[in-house]
User: What shape does this take?
Amino acid sequence: MIYYRVAFKVAHTQSWQWRSSSLTSLPTLFTLLRAYHGIPCDRIRIFFSSSEKGMEEMLVKENEGQITSSLTADQFLTGYRVNTPEVTRLELELSTASDHDVPYEFTLPTNLSQLLAWTKLMVKVRSGELVP
Assistant: This one.
């Protein structure tokens, strides 16, 4: 399930503020967006998540200029569609809980055929036959 939530950019503060509660239905979201037809689409943003609890953090990140899983109303209304696997992937990529900033430490495989393949590659690299 995908949760959607609408925010407006407030003119005097240039920050985003919620204008809806969490929505789970696309028809409801489209109805809500039609009700806001008089507001410029670049001042309306749709946030989406696989859970409700991540929405508040996304609004804070958006106001800090960080990347979030959200679209402007223009992007959303011109046909960009969001699916559950895409939302999950994006949330993993944007998560601060990941280990993407931890240096990778290589260890040789324990499987004999994989170990032989790595050894052959290492010999080719050291001999100059293969450039890394």
User: Anything to note?
Assistant: The chain is about 40% helix and 15% strand. Strands lie at 3-10, 15-18, 44-49, 70-72. The first helix runs from residue 26 to 35. The two ends are 43 Å apart (CA to CA).
